[in-house]
Every structure is written in structure tokens, then in C-alpha cells.
Specification:
The protein has one domain. About 30% of the residues lie in helices and about 20% in strands. It has one helix at about 5-20; strands at about 45-50, 55-60.
């Protein structure tokens, strides 16, 4: 393999690796309206989000 081919291969690998890193976003947002059966909004509702594949779970309270 020539030096130019090796250099191109390393550059391509570096670009692909960087794109893979940027694809991993640890931040997410959930938006919605929490209401009771009559349609009234529920303030300070407890919300639990879990991922059974990773075992991650978190609980938060709604803002209003």
C-alpha cells in the first residue's frame, strides 16, 4: 500500500469515526400535556421514564 493510499484510508476512517461519535446524543426532551380523565391539567405530576434495554430509569415532576 502506498503512502497516499494509507493516508486516504486513515482520513476516511477518521471522518467515519467522528460522524459516529456525533450520532450519539445523550440529551433528550419529552414534551406533552398531562391531564386527568376529565381533561383538566395535572400539576406537579410524577413522570417515570425507563429504558428496559439499558436498565436506565429516571423520575421527574412536571413543571406545571
Amino acid at each position: 500500500m502506498s503512502f497516499v493510499s494509507l493516508r486516504k484510508t486513515l482520513l476516511l476512517f477518521s471522518v467515519c469515526f467522528c460522524l459516529r461519535i456525533w450520532a450519539q446524543d445523550p440529551v433528550g426532551v419529552l414534551e406533552g400535556l398531562i391531564s386527568d380523565p376529565s381533561g383538566a391539567t395535572v400539576s406537579l405530576a410524577e413522570i417515570k421514564v425507563s429504558n428496559p434495554h439499558t436498565g436506565f430509569s429516571t423520575t421527574q415532576r412536571s413543571a406545571s
